[in-house]
Design brief:
Layout lengths: L6 H16 L6 E2 H8 L13 H13 L3 E4 L8 E4 L13 H13 L4 H7 L9 H12 L7 E3 L11 E3 L18 H19 L1
Antiparallel strand pairs: 1-3, 2-3, 4-5
Length: about 200
């Protein structure tokens, strides 16, 4: 599975995945509920201010891509929306609850470390520790059909790598490499050694 979706489409999809778990009694969602979820000020990075028309357009596009279903109860005019991105009767992508939680958080909040994912996942899935998050990420990194997550190069001063989803058409990705993974302390040591060599040559 290889998808490249806009930031707005990913926000809509992430919200449907989130609310399917956290507000089961209100799911599927009306258009107004999807708009509200997309524009939450908390647990969203970046914070968006999508209009009802923008959200409706994204829902229509996702429905055409068979990632969302729209339905209305008999005698009611309100259309309700549900995700069929994963674990649906119509799709082939099957994820466990831990994988859904991790992917949902990455869709809603961007690149995060395993520690951040564990801290923020409470309402979606209870991870016992960071190693369980890492074990959950591994299959998403190595899916046979197509990887859904990538590990980014470790930033200076950070102990953990960050992970990002691969469903965006806008992400500026910097994958891990041996050069990028070099510790700041190692770089300093190499610079010192080179300076020493230069000093010896000039002596």
């Amino acid at each position: 599975m290889k998808l490249t979706l806009s930031a707005a489409a990913l926000r809509v999809l992430g919200c449907l995945l989130e609310k399917e778990v956290t507000t089961r009694e209100q799911y599927p969602l009306s258009l107004n509920a999807v708009v509200s979820a997309c524009n939450h000020k908390s647990n969203r990075e970046p914070v968006m201010n999508l209009s009802e028309t923008e959200v409706q357009n994204q829902l229509d596009q996702l429905e055409k891509m068979h990632l969302v279903t729209a339905s209305s109860a008999s005698g009611q005019r309100v259309v309700k929306y549900a995700q069929r991105f994963c674990n649906s009767a119509f799709g082939t992508l099957k994820l466990n609850s831990a994988e859904v939680a991790v992917l949902t958080l990455l869709l809603l909040r961007g690149a995060q470390t395993p520690g951040e994912l564990r801290t923020r996942s409470g309402r979606l899935h209870e991870f016992t520790d960071v190693s369980e998050v890492e074990q959950t990420l591994n299959p998403l990194l190595q899916r046979d059909d197509s990887a859904m997550v990538m590990r980014l190069a470790r930033e200076p001063g950070r102990r953990e790598h960050r992970f990002i989803h691969l469903l965006s058409d806008e992400a500026e990705l910097s994958p891990e490499s041996d050069a990028d993974a070099t510790e700041p302390g190692d770089l300093a040591a190499r610079v010192t050694a080179l300076e020493h060599q230069v000093a010896q040559l000039q002596a």
